[in-house]
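re: that chain from earlier
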Amino acid sequence: MTASVLALVAVAAVTTSSGFAAPASEPVTKVKTEVIFEVGHPQTGAPEPATGLVPPGVVLLVESRGGSVMERYVKIHQELREAYRLMSFDKGIKAMLDIGVGSTKPVSSSIAGLDVTLKLLSVNDVQATYEVRLAESGEDPVVTRVAVRRSDWAIVGGRDGAKAPYFFLLFRPLTQAEEIDEARWEGMTKPKVLTSVNPKYPEEARKEKVQDIVVLELDLRADGTVASANVLEGKVPDLIEAAKEAALQWTFEPARDKAGRPVAVRYTVTLAFKLQ
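^ sequence. v structure.
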């Protein structure tokens, strides 16, 4: 049994909040949508999934609920690994799309010849409905509609050939509160991880098969170094301390304001301690 730590990064908020709120009376005509395109590789010699588990064309798993966004993302990875006998995932291609009703946005794909688009059909305060189009060279496109609650993940995927890796498009419409946080970054550049240090999985926790998801809020200085790490989520003290010790050693390309000047910000990172 091996131990690993999956590091996920998400923006929390800039140091100085603007404090504005979206007018509740205005009709909802667009939604910011987080998308991640990922490729998973099967284990060597692994048996094919049971008949019917992977339908021809598209794998569709809709709405992963319960827990924080990052907890659900980690859970999705675990479920995909188990369902499709996946050994590893490539680094995902992430983007934040601002989509209006009736408009279509391309999604970056790491598979040559595969075009992926996301069209917003409708949106309200509760959910959004999308049309997902997967078009492979020389083949008829696969088009499907997905209705998903705001903040929940939806997944559409398939296989790059009969014996090839699986690909998955994960997407979720942000809540209005999340959109307000995202709006604070308009005209700014977000920090980017330059160097990261993986936490050491405490030996006692590994022996006891203890797992946890630790969410930290980092105070980043204007030079991109970490001033402090505060715990937002986490249940196991030893794993929390291991996560904090590692995160304090991370460095970032600093966030920059509209004038291009580096600024101090608060940033959220999630470290998933898991055993495989």
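The first helix runs from residue 69 to 84.
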